[in-house]
C-alpha cells in the first residue's frame, strides 16, 4: 500500500502499475458556445457574390469584444464567413491556413490553374464539420462559403451538424430569420440572380445588417463586407458602419400584459 498522504487507499504502483489519470479526469466536450459572433449575410448577383458580417463577439449577452473579423479570405476568389463560437472559428481559420499552405506546396500556381476553388474549400469544411459532429464533439459554428467558380457565383452553407445546402441568398445566426426573408424578396431563385446588379446586392446586404442591428441584441453596427466580382476580383471593405439609423419607431412598441396608454 502506498502511504503517501496524497495516495492513501491507492494500490502500490510497483504491484498494480501506474494509476490511469484519465479515469479521474475524463475528456469533456464543449456543451455550448461561450463567446459568439452572430449573423453572416450573403447574396449572389449577376457578376459575383456579396457577403458581410458584423465585428462583435458576445460573452453570453455581454457585448464583449470589438473588431473580431469573421470573414476569412481564401485565395483570390473565395471568402469564408463564420458565425457561432469564436474559439471554434479560430480553429477553423487555422485549418484553412493549413489547407492553403499544403496547396501552395503541392502546386506551382501556374496561371492560377491549381488555386483553391470555392467548392474545394466548401467540401473540405463540410467534411470537417460532419466529422466533428460524428465524434459528438461538434464545432459550434455555421459557415458560409462564397466566391466565384468558372466565372459563376458560388454560395453554400454548412452548420455544426454537417447539414449543407445552397441558395442564391444565405444567412446564418439570427439573420436566417430576419435577413433571408428580405433577401428572398430580391432573389428568390437562381433565375433571379441574372436580374440583380452589384450595387443592388450591396444595398440589400447593408439593409439587412441595419435590420439586424435594430432587432438582434448581439449585433453591432460596425461590419465588414466582401465582394467577389468577375471584373474587379476580391474586395474587402473593413470598418464599415450602418448609417441613417432612426429609433423613432421604438416609441410605438408596447410590451406584453396590461398596458396603460
TrEMBL record:
Keywords: Cytoplasm, Nucleus, Proteasome. GO terms for cellular component: cytoplasm; nucleus; proteasome core complex, beta-subunit complex. InterPro entries: Ntn_hydrolases_N (IPR029055), Proteasome_beta4 (IPR016295), Proteasome_sua/b (IPR001353), Proteasome_suB-type (IPR023333). GO terms for biological process: proteasomal ubiquitin-independent protein catabolic process; proteasome-mediated ubiquitin-dependent protein catabolic process. It is found in: Cytoplasm; Nucleus. It comes from the Eukaryota. It holds the Pfam family Proteasome. Non-catalytic component of the proteasome. Belongs to the peptidase T1B family. This is Proteasome subunit beta. It comes from Zygosaccharomyces bailii (strain CLIB 213 / ATCC 58445 / CBS 680 / BCRC 21525 / NBRC 1098 / NCYC 1416 / NRRL Y-2227). The lineage of its organism: Eukaryota, Fungi, Dikarya, Ascomycota, Saccharomycotina.
Amino acid at each position: 500500500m502506498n502511504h503517501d498522504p496524497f495516495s492513501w487507499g491507492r494500490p502500490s504502483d510497483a504491484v498494480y502499475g501506474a494509476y490511469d489519470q484519465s479515469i479521474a479526469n475524463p475528456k469533456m466536450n464543449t456543451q455550448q458556445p461561450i463567446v459568439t459572433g452572430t449573423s453572416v449575410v450573403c447574396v449572389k448577383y449577376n457578376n459575383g457574390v456579396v457577403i458581410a458580417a458584423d465585428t462583435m463577439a458576445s460573452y453570453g449577452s455581454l457585448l464583449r469584444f470589438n473588431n473580431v473579423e469573421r470573414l476569412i479570405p481564401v485565395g483570390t476568389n473565395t471568402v469564408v464567413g463564420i458565425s457561432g463560437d469564436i474559439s471554434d472559428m479560430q480553429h477553423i481559420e487555422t485549418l484553412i491556413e493549413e489547407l492553403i499552405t499544403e496547396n501552395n506546396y503541392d502546386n506551382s500556381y501556374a496561371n492560377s490553374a491549381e488555386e483553391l476553388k470555392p467548392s474545394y474549400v466548401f467540401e473540405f469544411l463540410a467534411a470537417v464539420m460532419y466529422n466533428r459532429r460524428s465524434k459528438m464533439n461538434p464545432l459550434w459554428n455555421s459557415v458560409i462559403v462564397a466566391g466565384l467558380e468558372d466565372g459563376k457565383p458560388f454560395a453554400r452553407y454548412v452548420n455544426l451538424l454537417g447539414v449543407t445546402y445552397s441558395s442564391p441568398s444565405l444567412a446564418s445566426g439570427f439573420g436566417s430569420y430576419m435577413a433571408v426573408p428580405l433577401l428572398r424578396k430580391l432573389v428568390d431563385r437562381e433565375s433571379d440572380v441574372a436580374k440583380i446588379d452589384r450595387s443592388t446586392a450591396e444595398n440589400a446586404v447593408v439593409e439587412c445588417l441595419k435590420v439586424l442591428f435594430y432587432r438582434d441584441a448581439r449585433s453591432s453596427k460596425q461590419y465588414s463586407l466582401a465582394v467577389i466580382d468577375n471584373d474587379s476580383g476580391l474586395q474587402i471593405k473593413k470598418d464599415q458602419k450602418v448609417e441613417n439609423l432612426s429609433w423613432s419607431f421604438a416609441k410605438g412598441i408596447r410590451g406584453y400584459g396590461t398596458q396603460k396608454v
